[in-house]
């Protein structure tokens, strides 16, 4: 008989992203991958300044999950977003155009 007690398949479970308000970041539970932000305009604007995923975890979609968490937080707290991080502005937003309305109006880049 094969022993299966205690075995847990987690390959299909997405990693949990948590908000670390003290460090101004969203991060994986192991704290290895994160997206840093700065609050601007009296806390009404979230400036996403840096995304980091260690090389051992690249290609798993973590950067996108971090961005989604940040944009969901911004939306639920009535914040607009400045995509200062090049991953957010050049990769994530073009792949997720429905989130562009959350981008701070003074930071919109003309695509015309």
Structure, explained:
A five-stranded mixed sheet has the order 1-2-3-4-5. By secondary structure, it is of the alpha+beta class. The protein has helices spanning 62-76, 86-95, and strands at 17-20, 25-28, 34-40, 45-52, 80-82. The protein is globular, with a radius of gyration of 16 Å. A hairpin with a 4-residue loop joins β3 (34-40) and β4. The relative contact order is 0.15.
Q: What is the residue-averaged pLDDT?
A: 88
Helical segment tally? 2
Which sheet architecture does the biggest sheet show?
Answer: 5 strands, mixed
Radius of gyration computed on alpha carbons: 16 Å
Please give the share of residues in helix. Answer: 10-25%
Strand order of the largest sheet: 1-2-3-4-5
What are the segments in which pLDDT stays under 50 over at least 5 consecutive residues? 1-5, 108-112
How many beta-strand runs? 5
The quaternary structure here is: single chain
Distance, first to last CA: 65 Å
What are the main properties of this structure?
alpha+beta, 112 residues, Gcn5-rel_NAT, 22% helix, disordered N terminus, GNAT_YJDJ, Acyl_CoA_acyltransferase
Provide a compact summary of the structure.
It holds the Pfam family Acetyltransf_CG. It comes from Brassica cretica (Mustard). With 112 residues, the protein is an alpha+beta fold.
Record the SSE blueprint.
Blueprint lengths: L16 E4 L4 E4 L5 E7 L4 E8 L9 H15 L3 E3 L3 H10 L17
Parallel strand pairs: 4-5
Antiparallel strand pairs: 1-2, 2-3, 3-4
